[in-house]
From TrEMBL:
SUPFAM superfamilies: Six-hairpin glycosidases
Protein's recorded name: Mannosylglycerate hydrolase MGH1-like glycoside hydrolase domain-containing protein
Keyword line: Glycosidase, Hydrolase
Pfam families listed in its UniProt record: MGH1-like_GH
Alphabetical GO biological process terms: oligosaccharide metabolic process; protein N-linked glycosylation
Protein's organism: Micromonospora profundi
Domain Mannosylglycerate hydrolase MGH1-like glycoside hydrolase residues, every copy: 41-434
Top-level taxon: Bacteria
Family: Belongs to the glycosyl hydrolase 63 family.
Gene Ontology terms, MF aspect: Glc3Man9GlcNAc2 oligosaccharide glucosidase activity
């Protein structure tokens, strides 16, 4: 297959940017879904598919619905949507950790296809609603009718099985579930996870064959990641008793903001298809209240992850703290302090941005501009923060962030992530959600 191009003529070449993005999405299309990249990520990823569906709705709307439908065909009987759906046509060992580590088909209620046993932030209802708005046609309305029960089941799984503390918020059981895999936010709870050297000796990483090892999580990180997976897998991915036995239990601001935003989106979808939006609105309000009560830190004016095992908030100032802005009912007090945080030297959001939005506080001593999620800029997080800024009445800041993100792709191509100072492309080239979300940004008026 011919490799997709990676650059355009510059920030003013909007037609070139659009052509680049469409070419990448077409090149990454795999029968009924889009792979994030042909090298490092050759299977289907959960929240990648959601973001990709938003972009596809602008240019290939039928594929947007196929993208979401194919993902939800792998939904488990308990409602969980796995964070990876493995392509059986690929050779064993094409990705690490692969089906041989997850052994999902041994678990009760798992689908026949091999998947992981973890989940990712539930941005899918929002993606479905936006895909419908981007292409409001009878096919889209029929797709909403079909997806709605599965989206409701996804939310029910999270509410019923993952509210470990009984406080109305969802727990993640692995850093990978946050989407921000090795963020500094997880350093403290990860340090308490035993890392058995035998776990890593039994497997071989593939990510460092496609990306610089200095840009990726360390081997110690991976040993701990696999130890957590093994602990969850060996209990059949059963969420009962997590509080007593599981080594990693954290309430993540992004995950719970997405959980609440999904209920807002489901209320709109319900109204479109003739269902009752009232219960969704009520649950959305409850989630926002719990998020503010449990994870907002008035001392820093931002949201922090909560370590359920340690019973405390985790102190790293990461971009996770800004993402509750996507909640339209976030109280004014918290929204205002998040805007202050976004505009601070830590993140630098402005009407005219000199540098892209980083994933971690750029003034912190552990800021790493090259290492995965410990500093680099990612389009999906910027896209979410921009939506939040628009929702809370800051169009000038949203416009600055939009121009910054478009400038990243114009300068470096559709990379997985970007250097937070220079804007250089990092990680996989020809990356799916970057291509999809730049299409969405180009389509939006400032």
């Amino acid at each position: 297959m011919t490799a997709a191009p990676t650059r355009t003529g510059g920030p003013g070449d909007l037609a070139g940017l659009r052509h680049l993005a469409v070419t990448i999405l077409d090149a990454n299309w795999e029968d009924d879904h889009t792979v994030p990249s042909r090298t490092l990520y050759p299977h289907q990823w959960s929240w990648d598919s959601a973001f990709i569906a938003v972009g596809l709705a602008h240019v290939r709307p039928e594929r947007a619905w196929q993208e979401l439908a194919s993902l939800f065909r792998a939904q488990w009987a308990d409602g969980r949507v796995p964070h990876i759906v493995f392509n059986p046509a690929l050779r064993v060992g094409a990705y690490f950790p692969g089906p041989d580590l997850w052994r999902s088909t041994d678990a009760q209620g798992a689908p026949a296809v091999h998947t992981s046993g973890l989940v990712q932030p539930p941005v899918h209802a929002l993606a479905a609603l936006l895909a419908y708005r981007r292409a409001p046609e009878p096919v889209g309305l029929a797709a909403l009718h079909q997806l709605y029960p599965a989206l409701v089941a996804q939310q029910r799984y999270l509410a019923d099985r993952r509210d470990v503390a009984g406080d109305g918020l969802v727990c993640i059981v692995h850093p990978w579930e946050s989407g921000l895999d090795n963020s500094p936010a997880w350093d403290d709870p990860m340090a308490a996870v035993p890392a058995a050297a035998s776990v890593m000796r039994a497997y071989r990483r593939h990510d460092t064959a496609h990306a610089d090892a200095a840009h990726r999580p360390t081997d110690l990180d991976y040993a701990r990641y696999l130890a957590i997976v093994a602990a969850y897998r060996d209990r059949g991915y059963d969420d009962r008793g997590l509080a007593d036995r599981h080594p990693f239990l954290v309430e993540c601001p992004l995950f719970n903001a997405a959980f609440g935003a999904a209920e807002h989106a489901l209320a709109e979808i319900a109204a479109l298809i003739g269902a009752d939006p009232g219960p969704h609105r009520a649950r959305a309000a409850q989630i926002t209240e719990a998020l503010v009560r449990r994870l907002y830190d008035p001392a820093t004016g931002t949201f922090q992850p909560g370590d359920v095992r340690a019973g405390r908030l985790l102190g790293a100032r990461t971009v996770l703290g800004l993402t509750p802005l996507i909640l339209p009912d976030l109280p004014t007090r918290q929204a205002d302090t998040l805007v202050v945080e976004a505009r601070s030297a830590r993140f630098g959001v402005a009407a005219r941005m000199d540098r892209p939005l980083p994933s971690h506080d750029r003034t912190a001593p552990d800021f790493e501009p090259l290492r995965y999620w410990r500093g680099p800029s990612w389009l999906n997080i910027g896209w979410l923060v921009r939506r939040g800024l628009l929702a809370h009445g800051h169009p000038e800041l949203a416009a600055g962030l939009r121009r910054s993100m478009i400038g990243l792709v114009a300068g470096a191509g559709c990379h997985e992530y970007f250097h937070p100072d220079t804007g250089a492309g990092l990680g996989s080239a020809a990356f799916g959600w970057t291509a999809a979300l730049v299409l969405d940004l180009l389509a939006d008026e400032e």
